[in-house]
Amino acid sequence: MDRAHGAMGGHVIMVVAVNGNLTSESTPSATFRPHPHLPTIGMIGVGVMASALVRGIGDAAQKILLSPRGAKNARLLAQRHDAVEVCPDNQAVVEGSEVVFLCVRPDQIDDALSGVTVPEDVVVVSVVAGVSTEQLATILGPGVTVVRATVQVSVSRRAGLTVVSHDHPTVRALFDLLGGTLIVEEGPFDALQVPAAAMSSLLGYLKALTDWAVARGVPPADAERFVISLAQGAVADLDPADPIAEALSHHETPGGVNEFVRTHWLDKRIDPLHEVLDQVLDRLKGPA
């Protein structure tokens, strides 16, 4: 994976489709010394993904400016990070920042940018599912560079690989700090958004295993602890340099119970899963 070097210049707006709240029980990220090459960062809208980004960046940024949108989350983040300040409006965030994350749902983009002047040297990084580069360019006006990105909540731990549709040194350097950057063309980018939509189902599968054990007399805390340990062990066996099929083979004995569950349950449901994933892709792309 290529990594970016050098100072970050210009302005960047990051557009993030999110919906949710940062709870008071959320664990704050570790405190980092300010990074000399990190730009001033702004957030318009402060939901789940924006909060994860703030926690991942932490106090490594010289300054992080938050809009009053998502006031509760903004207040909690400001309490936890000395670098965080809350601005009176969205224009103030843009004017005071070099990197601005626009953290709203796709149907809120027009409202969020209404009356906000975006300079031509702004780079827009969009994590809005289903909104193309061309659509964003129309909204933001000519002369604004647009990069799409798929961000994971694990950026809060600096452990999330972010997929981007174009290589931009400033954007790449920032996402490398948060766990890494995968650069793909816009066509494959659309397809890679779909597996990200299946993560709650993956966790739901683990919950189903736990519920089955509890229904057969295992104490809930013990069932959860054991299933989580199984999942963590399986994930630990994954290596980005090796095919997933190789790790899968390490967890099966020919004729054993792992193979039995896969062949009698999962393999029979792969085609229906792919059909649902195709429907998700069609939904993300919107009407033809």
Write the layout of secondary structure elements.
Blueprint (H helix, E strand, L loop, with lengths): L10 E6 L24 E4 L3 H10 L6 E3 L4 H10 L3 E3 L3 H7 L2 E5 L5 H5 L8 E6 L5 H8 L4 E6 L11 E3 L4 H9 L3 E3 L2 H11 L2 H17 L4 H17 L7 H7 L6 H10 L3 H16 L3
Parallel strand pairs: 1-5, 1-6, 2-3, 2-5, 3-4, 6-7, 8-9
Antiparallel strand pairs: 7-8
Q: Which architecture of the largest domain per CATH?
A: 3-Layer(aba) Sandwich
- What structural category characterises the helix and strand content? alpha/beta
The CATH topology of the largest domain is Rossmann fold
Ends distance: 34 Å
Strand content bin: 5-15%
**What's the mean pLDDT score?**
83
| Name of the CATH first level of the largest domain | Alpha Beta
What order do the strands of the largest sheet run in, or round the barrel if closed? Answer: 4-3-2-5-1-6-7-8-9
Total number of strands:
9
Low-confidence stretches: 1-9, 17-31
Number of helices: 12
- What characterizes the major β-sheet? 9 strands, mixed
Give a quick summary of the entry:
The chain is α/β, with parallel strands linked by helices.
